[in-house]
Sequence to fold (529 residues):
Amino acid sequence: MAPSAPAIRLDHVSKWFFKDGKRITAVDDVSADVPEGAFIALVGPSGCGKSTLFNCIAGFEQPERGSVIYRGSPVTKPNIGIGYMTQKDSLLPWRSVLDNVLLPLHLQKVPRDEAINRAMGVINRVGLDGFAKHLPSELSGGMQKRTALARMLAYNPTTLLMDEPFGNVDVQLKLQLQRELMKLWESERKTVVFVTHDLEEAIALADRVIMMSPRPGRIKADIAIKLKRPRDPVQIRFEPEFQEIHKQLWSLTDNAEDAHG
Amino acid sequence: MVSMDDSIAGIIDPGIEAARRRRNIVLAGRIILCVGFIVGWQIAGPHLDKLIFSDPSEIGVRLWQWTTDGTLLRNLYVTAEEIILGYALGAGLGVALGLLMGSYPVVASIFDPILMAVYGVPKIAFGPLFIVWFGINLTPKVVITALVVFFFVFLSTYEGARSVDRDLLRVVKLMGANGWQERRLVIIPGAMPAIMLGLKLAIPEALVGAIVGELIVSSRGIGYLVQFSASQLDSAGVFAGLIILMVLALIFNSAVNYATGKSGGKRA
Fold:
């Protein structure tokens, strides 16, 4: 890959808000570059400002100081065209799986026939064949996640923002979804910013882990994960290098001081 | 005789059998209550003050008279017209303003105190004003009905639109939806169950609005029949009018239950 402008540049980003007349700093002077095609994990305990940063990149919030640059231009309004997925699946409950996946294509005025082809393609790719006509309420939690994933992938965004997308599913399913995400990512190499508080998840998936400290949110560590690719996020956990990195990152967390934390 | 289906259902799920039995008890209870009430009233009739209580047979005769001489139909037509026009007007405005305020907080802040002030006033108090403005014919009744209906529909639409998950809006916005598309694709369908509920609850209120209007001043309509009968000390006529109103309310409610049961369930 040729060295070019980063997909996302956080340039001395600070963000605060006022509560009961007191100024609370959520993010304090954070700078980082996310190159095109990189998978970055943003980890840290709750209150470290990772979701605030996430919202700044998505364009729902603006930093008080500094700026977020997305592909060369500052983000000042909702960053249309990026893929976005949060813990809540945010599927429209009155639309079938197919109609949910068609929504972004419809909004981008993709001709109907082509849109249906593409939607069915991603629906099959995430393993939802045969469920296109179902309503989200008729699906299991895992299938709802897959639907949200399919919807995000349907319009082929170059950048994906994921805020604890697998935060509320059981461990088994989480591992499975991580595996599927990894497969999809390794075949397409989109830029991903993946917010999580799960250190293992971060290491298993990402090229680089940015660790944040709690209030005020600052970057505590920015570590390249040099594990092999393609990577099976489940199997990789048993590799000694994984354990090594895990130990190293863990020692940086505040939990490290509590002996058994 | 127990049919095959019944016996199987009984084995698989005794709850079905119990539910059926309870339904029968309720139905029987209702019939006994009604028949008992009517018979008791008829028996007690001769011992009561005719001017105040009348009795069921007299009321029946009055209903029959009104039906055969066209009184019922003529007045029913007037009341129905008031209800339908008032309902359509009030419901239309209620949905429109509810969606508008539910999706534009600034508009909501501007309108909120005015609407709440009007909402707090019993609608009947506007009657005299509307009569001054619109005369004594159809229009003031339509306007009162519309006013009553408006608040029911508006409040539930507004609440429904406001409680639509903001995360859905975010997602759709990032997909490139403009303001109107956000409304059409997320807010309106999201608010639909609440809108349907408001439309449903407003139907009996439309009847209230029309009758209240007629009671204030009118020369036709079911409310007028009640009012006129009372002024003639004709208690059978008053009861006959009230019975017509009850039947109307029942018909309206079951029609709405039927209609919303269908489209309301679609979304869930």
